[in-house]
């Protein structure tokens, strides 16, 4: 996206570096994350950032050979913001001093910074609530013990006498805390002040991205044909809609129906794209193939491998029917790109095992089209809105590639899948009726590999137990269970047992991630 002013985030290995990028994107600033070892003098010249941020990291600048940015970064004449380890790097590189962790200077968790008398533009909007302090999130053992020449202190905390420092002449800023995490409530304001000082126009919008991406797709594809594995999820749906806007009838989507979809899902997805959006969609109905090979299989990893292998075979079978196809579209997102780069070992070509089309590019010899690879999930949803996709698709909860196979622990049967589809539909209907759908990251039902005794009417039943799962999350990396009321759970349980034959007991899973995972398998 060379049309936009760009901000470079040099990553020193922090677990929350992605959050820095997300905060900046929310401010309509285009930024990219690159591991420190990839940021060379030549890279800096080509990238030409308007500003740079040094991330946090787990290392110690007091260790010989610790991660550092190139000296050229300080000589570009652009603003730099150092965060936690990034602050310590700046001090060490520019003539200050950092000391290894001591118990009385280490800070982990919530802390409060108080300002010095002199205020700077970076802190506009801070210290205004009447308490004279701001809550921040600290996570440091080492500490700055001596400032580099040209720097002054503008705020302190009990464990960090140099909590906020700056060299105003060079527009170098350094903070010991993490403004990107939500535990620093006013952190977004600090980032906003920083990018304003750097002169960013805030022109990174999905409206602008749409036009640029369409032009880029047309240039890449030309008059050739492209195929897309359409799952009905947000990523593949937005990718398909964007590519269709760019090249129209040159795109063909293949929707693989493996018999592990939710109630009426295949009809809804194919209907929307074929009828509402006028896309060419091949509905590959291969339920018998998938369910046949899964018969008698209970190990979750074996299930995944079978489904992944068959998906590639089926997709290739139908794709081979599209004469002249040279490109394969994937809904790769920016977090996938970031995570494919190893912090310690440089770029990695390994494709994550959960990726929706796995090893297709290598096997089929097609060139990739990845129009979403610069976007986070929330940006993809905003782009989907720009493209006119229905809100029901843009706001859908994530759905795993193996589908209901991993929501049916143990052996899969057609009868169990049919029971699960109906129960899941009732559960989601309940969530929507109570206005809770958009508050929840992901919600689903899972049919358990057990039967329980029940009493219905005057008779004895021996039917399946059902687990309900609902979690809140930002990115799926960590999650907490959703705190439904007892009234909601009781009402939902009653509806499922009354409306779905084969279920006589309902449980609610209140396990967070970690220690659990979001899906049961």
Topology:
Elements: E1 6-11, H1 17-26, E2 30-35, H2 41-47, E3 51-54, E4 80-83, H3 85-93, E5 97-99, E6 107-115, E7 134-140, E8 143-146, E9 152-157, E10 160-167, E11 172-175, H4 187-198, H5 206-221, E12 225-229, H6 234-247, E13 251-257, H7 265-276, E14 280-285, H8 287-294, H9 300-319, E15 325-329, H10 334-339, E16 341-342, E17 346-347, H11 360-364, E18 367-369, H12 377-386, H13 391-394, H14 414-433, E19 442-456, E20 459-472, E21 480-481, H15 486-499, E22 503-508
Parallel strand pairs: 1-2, 1-3, 3-4, 4-11, 12-13, 12-15, 13-14, 15-18, 20-22
Antiparallel strand pairs: 5-8, 6-7, 6-9, 9-10, 10-11, 16-17, 19-20, 20-21
Task: Describe the overall structure.
This protein has 521 residues and is an alpha/beta fold. It has 3 domains: 6-198, Class I glutamine amidotransferase (GATase) domain (Rossmann fold); 206-394, HUPs (Rossmann fold); 414-508, 2-Layer Sandwich (GMP Synthetase, Chain A, domain 3). It is built from 15 helices and 22 strands. It has helices spanning 17-26, 41-47, 85-93, 187-198, 206-221, 234-247, 265-276, 287-294, 300-319, 334-339, 360-364, 377-386, 391-394, 414-433, 486-499; strands at residues 6-11, 30-35, 51-54, 80-83, 97-99, 107-115, 134-140, 143-146, 152-157, 160-167, 172-175, 225-229, 251-257, 280-285, 325-329, 341-342, 346-347, 367-369, 442-456, 459-472, 480-481, 503-508. The strands form 5 sheets. A 9-stranded mixed beta sheet has the order 2-1-3-4-11-10-9-6-7, sandwiched between helices. A 5-stranded parallel beta sheet has the order 14-13-12-15-18, sandwiched between helices. Strands 19, 20, 21 and 22 form a 4-stranded mixed beta sheet that branches. α1 (17-26) links the parallel β1 (6-11) and β2 (30-35). α14 (414-433) packs across α15 (486-499). The protein is globular. The two termini are 39 Å apart. Residues 342-358 have low confidence and may be disordered.
